[in-house]
Structures are given as C-alpha cells and as structure tokens.
Write a structure and sequence with these properties.
With 357 residues, the protein is of the alpha+beta class. It has helices spanning 21-30, 64-71, 166-179, 184-193, 234-244, 265-273, 294-337, and strands at 2-4, 10-12, 40-51, 55-62, 75-83, 94-96, 104-106, 109-110, 131-132, 140-147, 154-163, 205-207, 220-223, 232-233, 261-263, 280-283, 289-292. 30% of the residues lie in helices and 23% in strands. The strands form 5 sheets. Strands 3, 5, 6, 9 and 11 form a 5-stranded antiparallel sheet that branches. The protein has a 4-stranded antiparallel sheet with strand order 4-10-7-8. Helix 3 (166-179) packs across helix 5 (234-244).
Length: 357
C-alpha cells in the first residue's frame, strides 16, 4: 500500500525511502556550521554550493507544504555565507557576509537589506544576521543569482526552518532554569569565603535597571557561568540578540549562548522584596537585601561628583608641576648653554691670579 506524502508524492508505507545522496551531504555539511541561529530551527538544508565565480546561478525547490508554512509566517528560508577555508577543511568554516548591496537576486528580484560584512569579528558568539528570502520565493522551482565582485570564495547554505519567537525561547530559558537552577547566592558565598580577584563583581550594590534599556528588570537573567551578581532583563536581552545576532553578556562581555542563560533566583527575590520605585539595592552577606533610597542614591551621586572634581583638580595640579619643571629645566639648559663656546668651554674670560712669591 502507498499513501500520499506532505509534498504530494506517494511513498510506500512498508519501507521509508532513503533520502537522496545530495540531501545527506547537505545535512552533513550543515552540522559543521559553528553557531546556529537560535531563532531559526532548521528543518531542511535545501542547498550547499561553493561560489567561486563572478556569477553563480543556483536552483532549488520549495515544496507545497513548505510554501504553505512560509505564507503563514511560521517558517522561512534563509541563506548563510561562509568563507571557504584555504586548507579546504570544513571544520574551519567562518561565517561571513556581503561586501556590498546588489550581490544577490532571487527569482530575478534583487534581495534588499543584505547584512554588511564587518571588518573585524567581535567575539565567538557573534553571528552575521541571516538573510531571509521569504518575500521573494514562489512554490516550486526558485532561482538564485550570486555575484562575486572581488573574487571572494564562499560556501552558500540555503536552509528551510521554523521561526522561533522571543516568547518561545524565553520559555525554554525558564525550563532550563527549573531543571538546572542558577542563583547569585552561590556567587555570594564565594565572595564571602574568597576575597580574591577571581570573582568579577565584589560590589554588593546592584542596580534594578536593565543595562540595555535602563528600565526596570522584570525577569532577571545572566549566564550560568558569569561571575557577577548584576542581572539583565531576559526578554530585553533576547530582543537585542535577535536584532543584532550578538550573544554576549552585556555585563562582562563574555560569549553567552542561549543554553547558558538562566533566571537568577537571588535577584528575583530582591525584586520581590524592594519597592517598585527603587533603582538600587544592597545585597548583604547573608543574602538579604537593603533598598537604596532615592536620598542615598542622590547623596552618593553628589559624592561621586565631588570625587571626580577633586581628582580633576589633583591632575591639573600635577600637570602644572610637570609643566613648571619642564620650563625650569629648559631655562637651566639655556642658561647653561650661554656660558659655553663652540668648543664646549666656558665663554667667560678666565682670571688668573699670579702670586709674587
């Protein structure tokens, strides 16, 4: 017996048809991609090709059921570029981007908004924003034209997958936080027991505002391996990461993959215990909290301003001393040089006293 598949083709219910050899090769190569987009779950690698010519034309198919999901906005097709390693070893693939606009067309339409190639990669968990092709696609056969203006050698990955919303990824972080909890209490104990520089944050005063937007933190999160008490707002961070494709901790700058994100229990308790108007709180050694009042915050701000002015005045005073010293040295040098002739001897007449004896 046979039954109709999702793409309209019939296949035997007795034995599953093996995937085409080309598809197997595509999937094997796709596994070598160093960092997958957390907001895009790959369902099928549609195409993998080397681009080594000035113009490269590629073709691929969008099946009927895939086209339906694309039209409903649940799925999409993206294209990613990787530099072809000089050694030819796939494990060394480095993601790259487009050197300029107008280098990609889909079904005879120029693809707009190509992510620009950056001069310097930021950190390991920074990825190039994906190029989505949804609005240029059609059901059935599709065509790509890729132009290489400066002889770049690239490997193109074309993938069909499900779009992952921020809320869905946030739910995954909540689930991870329950199965593998993270609490600043452990870090606090380490700070109390070890007074060393190995712990990044020894300041027990934390702000209740997200460093990305300076608004109140609602869901406090950080990396499970981050050595600081300060947290950021989880939904805000996920929106930022989606827009900029930069998975870096906004506090310490370390790479922060989605599976390393955790909701912090200690910070959650702090938000529940302090008033909604509080901007800061102190974390006491026993793990309790003390709200920093607006008056205290203002007084501390004034003290910091005075210290800054004092430091500026001190630096100005030291600069004046240094300047006076340089002027004095120049004066002594010029005065000393005025008493010497061309031979380096004194230009004054020598007085010789002759003793009659």
């Amino acid at each position: 017996k046979s039954k109709l598949g999702l793409n309209g083709s019939s296949h035997s219910s007795q034995a599953k048809q093996p995937a085409p050899k080309s598809t197997q090769i595509y999937e094997e190569k796709a596994r070598l991609i160093p960092f997958q987009n957390p907001f895009f779950k790959v369902r099928r690698t549609m195409l993998v090709r080397d681009v080594v010519c000035a113009q490269t034309k590629l073709s691929f198919d969008v099946h009927a059921h895939e086209w339906q999901w694309i039209r409903e906005g649940k799925c999409g097709v993206n294209i990613r570029l990787f530099e072809i390693p000089q050694t030819g070893v796939d494990e060394n693939m480095t993601e790259t981007a487009w050197t300029q606009q107008g280098l990609l067309s889909c079904n005879d339409q120029l693809v707009a908004g190509l992510p620009k190639k950056k001069k310097q990669p930021k950190k390991p968990n920074y990825t190039t924003p994906p190029t989505m092709l949804d609005q240029y696609l059609q059901q059935g056969r599709n065509h790509l034209m890729i132009y290489s203006m400066n002889g770049e050698r690239m490997q193109v990955f074309l993938q069909y997958g499900t779009r992952i919303a921020v809320d869905e990824l946030s739910d995954q972080v909540h689930a991870l936080s329950e199965s593998d909890p993270c609490s600043g209490k452990f870090l606090l104990d380490a700070i109390n027991q070890n007074d060393t520089d190995e712990v990044a944050c020894t300041n027990m005063e934390v702000t209740l505002k997200c460093p990305l937007t300076m608004t109140r933190i609602n869901v406090p999160a950080k990396g499970k391996n981050c050595n600081h008490l300060q947290c950021f707002d989880l939904p805000t961070f996920l929106e930022y990461a989606k827009r900029h494709t930069a998975w870096l901790c906004p506090m310490c700058g370390d790479p922060l993959a989605p599976d390393q994100l955790r909701i912090d229990e200690l910070f959650t308790t702090a938000l529940q215990q302090v008033s909604e108007d509080a901007n800061k709180c102190r974390v006491l050694p026993d793990g309790t909290f003390q709200e920093v009042s607006l008056e205290e915050e203002k007084a501390e701000s004034n003290r910091a301003l005075k210290r800054q002015r004092s430091d500026t005045q001190g630096l100005s005073f030291l600069a004046e001393i240094a300047t006076d010293g340089e002027e004095q040295n120049e004066h002594e040098s010029s005065s000393s040089s005025g008493f010497r002739g061309a031979n380096g001897n004194s230009s004054h007449d020598e007085i010789v006293i002759i003793d009659d004896d």
